[in-house]
Amino acid sequence: MSGNRHLISIYLLTVSLLTSPAAAVAKDAAQEPAAQVGVGSQYDTTHVYVAPEDVDKFVASFLATFGGQSTKQVVATVTPTPSSTTSQLLQTPAGTVSVFGFKTPIPYPFGLERTGYLVTDIDEAIEAAKQSGADVLVATFPDPIGRDAVIQWPGGVNMQLYWHTTKPSYAAFETIPENRVYVSPERADAFTSAFLRFSHGKVVSDDAKAPGVEIGRPKDTYRRIRMESVFGKMTVLVTDGQLPFPYGRELTGYEVTNLNSTLAKATETGSRILVGPFTADRRESAIVQFPGGYIAEIHASAK
What we know:
Order of helices and strands: HHEHEEEEEHEEEEHEEEEHEEE
Shape: globular
Number of helices: 6
Number of domains: 2
Distance between the termini: 76 Å
Largest sheet: 9 strands, mixed
Oligomer: single chain
CATH topology of the largest domain: 2,3-Dihydroxybiphenyl 1,2-Dioxygenase, domain 1
CATH class of the largest domain: Alpha Beta
Helix content: 10-25%
């Protein structure tokens, strides 16, 4: 009997150690991707799809609003299956967008990915994303200047990861844009945990009662999570999905020094103010629709 008691004691001790908080931390650490695959926020772009006839109008308005310049427009195949699109990069002090004007039908699931993130090694990045809980929607494929893949995070958030054959060198942003992600309460923690593990990021704030005016529901509150990582800023808006237009349609929030003058530049070049300006969380905000349909949040620190 004493021998059996000894074995039982060892078993109980082992179970206790494996289920202790320290063991949970160690388990999480073991699952943590070993390497940082991000490069920098100035290499991360919002993907903007507009009709070919609207590309030039969108480019003119976006650059007039934020400043900066465009790369030369090219016609290329940027998907693993046959397609044709105009492609150019708009680089501004407040954020970068990749503009696509498809001349052919857009192959699935392209057009549903919100951003493109530059990584140091595409194979390592895909493995890190999978370890962190992401699904691979489009396996790695070559493009004219490198390799790409499309992944999906818990909550249905699609992103493209890319790697360049020739390492790019871009100036840092004057203000770092925020990726605005809408997820359900059921998947918010899973998404946040997965993306933080992948990005090696941190939670800056987690407000369970953020003002509902930020999502077009001024009488309500909602949960808002702000995160930062090498990929830049991210705001996770946790909602029940009952959102008035245009909330949920804006992919990126751009920080500017003077909101009113920025909005004036936007409207002078064909953009429309859909919401605002309004003040919440120490910022003045508005939502703008650019020619071609692209919707963005623009904000400045409240005085």
